[in-house]
Amino acid sequence: MGAGSSSIAAAEEGGCSSPSKMMVVGLGDMPESCVASVLIYLDPPEICKLARLNQAFRGASSADFIWESKLPSNYKYLMEKIFGQIPANLSMKEIYAKLCRPNRFGDGTKEIWLDKRTAQLCMSISAKALTITGIDDRRYWKHLPTEESRFNSIAYLQQIWWFEVDGEVELCFPAGTYSLFYRIQLGRAAKRFGRRVCNPEHIHGWDLKPVRFQLQTSDGQHAMSHCYLDEPGNWVNYHVGDFVVENPNTPTKIKFSVTQIDCTHTKGGLCLDSVLIYPSELRDRLKR
């Protein structure tokens, strides 16, 4: 007790009237190299928050070795895929920030970005990059502008007998497990008097037979699922299946499809936005 009381008294005499002030002084005296060796164990958002503490933390938070450790091992490939080459004189922090933004490629019909917290790769593929049976016949399909799509356009099905939408993508994905989804809505959404409403006029046929989702990869992985399309007026991310990437330096080709080809009845009133590829551990973020 006596030793503790003496220490507190000495601190007060020295002008440090509270433990919080003592801590601020101590943090300010820490060398940037010591701060950086601690920051490397934190998530990127936490690093950015601590950068506001003082000059030492601000300087340490920009260290290249910290941000390179957060990036996927094949980040150079991703930069070249998006920008053609790595822009000159960029720090690792700037590269991280660029890859976390939505970046278009493939004639603007595909988009990739890194999750800001985990640096895991996410991808979205526009309906315009998919092979849709009957898409060139306006009796069946139309491309419609909308603010509800990140690509500002969806494919709308009025009516058809043979429903089939195929796609493929080839990319060096960072190692990990990924989930693939089709983003679909029954009914055509519009705004009336500032409110979102859904027109169910052409919705039919989806309750008679389920649709079939499939995916396969160039290294022999397969997945298949069946489900009925439902929830008119809501965008739903329908899970197709999962695949695993072990080598981030080898391109993985993925082929995927959704079909309902029972020609005993027509089906229609469907909006197709995109295909999503997400890290499986983040799939809960894709709310139904």
Structural notes for this entry:
The structure is a single chain. It is elongated, with a radius of gyration of 26 Å. The protein has eight helices and 15 strands. The longest helix is centred in the N-terminal third of the chain and has 12 residues, at 2-13. It is α+β, with helices and mostly antiparallel strands. Strands 1, 2, 3, 5, 6, 8, 13 and 15 form an eight-stranded antiparallel sheet that branches.
Order of helices and strands: HHHHHHHHEEEEEEEEEEEEEEE
Low-confidence stretches: 1-25
Q: Could you say which overall geometry the principal axes of the C-alpha atoms support?
A: elongated
Strand content: 25-35%
Class per helix and strand makeup: alpha+beta
Please specify the SSE layout and strand pairing.
Blueprint: H1 2-13, H2 19-28, H3 32-39, H4 44-50, H5 55-60, H6 64-70, H7 75-83, H8 92-100, E1 103-105, E2 110-114, E3 121-126, E4 131-132, E5 141-145, E6 153-157, E7 163-171, E8 176-186, E9 188-192, E10 195-199, E11 211-217, E12 222-227, E13 236-245, E14 252-260, E15 270-279
Antiparallel strand pairs: 1-2, 2-3, 3-15, 4-7, 5-6, 6-15, 7-14, 8-13, 8-15, 9-10, 11-12, 11-14
